[in-house]
């Protein structure tokens, strides 16, 4: 084979020196053109634990690798929480845990209609995030955010009766899970089973408030599995483009039912997806209530200033299966043991007792006993509440004349009188 001449072996680079002899214009290199982004990561510990699928013949299982014996880091001091507020969040977390324990017992006693969904290991995320909301802000929990209901004023009996389909439940026995809300007193939008749909709904709430001339925060949650749905992207993009006060928590709890995160998305951190929307993204330790609160507080304040949405990824571990019927046998035992040492309630208790010394052993014992007594009272009320009458099943299915009145929360937008024309706003709608 004839050798190609040297002059043809490499592509010739065109000279950047102008023909008139002047200096070449400043052309940035590829490296200079690449943009870099900063994602605040407030974790005290960045674990390098991975889960991989292993196939042996017809058997498929998961194995975990990494430093599973790393020491548990201390909680990060909050920039905003006072002693009383930290104790209040801790109490809500304990109440959340004990309420779910009582629900598990009721299920095993055959008193629950349907299944039960737990947030074991996620109490810090649910309680501390909701605690950051102002009274006029809105929120929409998911099935594992039962602690946020307690923070916003629901009683433990409400959740218990809901799962037991009792007449005194928020839905009067017409639903056996957490599909209830409160649009008038607690500004809560009911959970939606189609994962991701709460995001555009909450964005719509924020847009509606803006039409009233108000900037509010609207908080909702999505799991690492649910964030893969198309409506999640559509909702975040809408909030971003409209600069709405959405505070979105991605509860990155490692498993989408039985699918590990490593088999679901390629990103190292889901907070990276905020970059594509042009909004702030933050990473926190979801078992550290102080980190969760601080990130939520700053995101809520941004929303109140009209500065748009924030995406917060809270990393933690779902310590039970998808629901009570799921034994989570697919999860490697070593992974459960690793995260058990990072129990958010145990960490908060240690922080209050030993790090800050804001609680004495006697005070903590009294707090735990008080919560235990309250849960027992709530459980008795729920158990003794009657089941709905059969003939009441038809009520609320069809709206009959005078059955109920839907009244607006904030009224209708006001128009300046005497101008002879509508006042122009940035809103893409025209309201009479």
Task: Kindly describe this structure.
- The chain is α/β, with parallel strands linked by helices and 432 residues long.
- The chain has a single domain, classed as Rossmann fold (3-Layer(aba) Sandwich), CATH 3.40.50.
- 35% of the residues lie in helices and 10% in strands.
- It is built from 13 helices and nine strands.
- It has a five-stranded parallel beta sheet with strand order 3-4-5-9-8, with helices on both faces. A two-stranded antiparallel sheet has the order 1-2. Strands 6-7 form a two-stranded antiparallel sheet.
- Strand 1 and strand 2 form a beta hairpin.
- It is globular, with a radius of gyration of 26 Å.
Q: Quickly count the helices.
A: 13
- Overall mean confidence score, pLDDT: 87
Q: Please tell me what the overall shape is.
A: globular
* CATH architecture term: 3-Layer(aba) Sandwich
The first-to-last residue Cα distance is 82 Å
Q: Could you say which structural class the secondary elements and strand pairing correspond to?
A: alpha/beta
What value does the Rg take, in angstroms? 26 Å
User: Within the CATH hierarchy, at the fold level, what is the topology?
Assistant: Rossmann fold
Number of strands: 9
CATH superfamily assignment? Thiamin diphosphate (ThDP)-binding fold, Pyr/PP domains
What multimeric state do the chains show?
A: single chain
- Stretches where pLDDT is under 50 for at least 5 consecutive residues are 1-25, 418-432
Task: Report strand %.
Answer: 5-15%
CATH class categorisation: Alpha Beta
Let me know the largest β-sheet. Answer: 5 strands, parallel
Strand order of the largest sheet: 3-4-5-9-8
């Amino acid at each position: 084979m004839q050798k190609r001449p040297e002059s043809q072996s490499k592509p010739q680079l065109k000279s950047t020196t102008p023909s008139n002899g002047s200096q070449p214009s400043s052309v940035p290199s590829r490296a200079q053109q690449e943009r870099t982004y900063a994602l605040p990561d407030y974790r005290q510990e960045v674990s390098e634990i991975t889960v991989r699928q292993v196939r042996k013949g017809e058997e498929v299982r998961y194995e975990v690798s990494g430093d599973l014996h790393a020491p548990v880091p201390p909680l990060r001091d909050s920039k905003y929480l006072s002693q009383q507020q930290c104790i209040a969040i801790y109490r809500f977390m304990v109440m959340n845990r004990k309420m779910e324990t009582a629900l598990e017992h009721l299920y095993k006693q055959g008193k629950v209609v349907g299944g039960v969904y737990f947030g074991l290991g996620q109490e810090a995320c649910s309680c501390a995030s909701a605690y950051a909301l102002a009274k006029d802000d809105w929120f929409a929990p998911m099935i594992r955010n039962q602690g946020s209901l307690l923070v916003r004023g629901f009683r433990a009996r409400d959740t218990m009766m809901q799962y037991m389909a009792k007449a005194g439940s928020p839905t009067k026995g017409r639903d056996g899970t957490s599909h209830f809300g409160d649009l008038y007193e607690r500004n809560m939008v009911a959970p939606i089973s189609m994962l991701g749909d709460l995001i555009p709904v909450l964005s719509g709430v924020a847009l509606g408030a803006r039409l009233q001339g108000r900037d509010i925060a609207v908080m909702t949650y999505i799991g690492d599995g649910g964030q893969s749905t198309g409506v999640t992207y559509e909702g975040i993009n809408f909030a971003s483009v409209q600069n709405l006060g959405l505070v979105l928590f991605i509860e990155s709890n490692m498993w989408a039912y039985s699918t590990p995160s490593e088999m679901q998305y390629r990103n190292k951190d889901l907070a990276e997806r905020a970059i594509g929307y042009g909004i702030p993204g933050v990473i926190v330790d979801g078992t550290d209530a102080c980190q969760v609160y601080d990130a939520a507080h700053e995101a809520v304040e941004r929303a109140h200033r009209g500065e748009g949405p924030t995406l917060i990824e809270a990393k933690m571990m779902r310590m039970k299966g998808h629901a009570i019927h799921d034994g989570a046998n697919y999860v490697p035992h070593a992974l459960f043991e690793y995260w058990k040492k990072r129990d958010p309630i145990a960490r908060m208790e240690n922080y209050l007792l030993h790090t800050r010394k804001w609680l004495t052993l006697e005070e903590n014992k009294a707090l735990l006993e008080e919560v235990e007594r309250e849960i027992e009272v709530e459980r008795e009320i729920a158990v003794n509440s009657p089941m709905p009458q059969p003939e009441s099943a038809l009520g609320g299915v069809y709206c009959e004349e005078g059955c109920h009145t839907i009244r607006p929360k904030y009224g209708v937008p006001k128009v300046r009188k005497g101008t002879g024309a509508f006042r122009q706003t940035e809103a893409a709608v025209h309201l009479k």
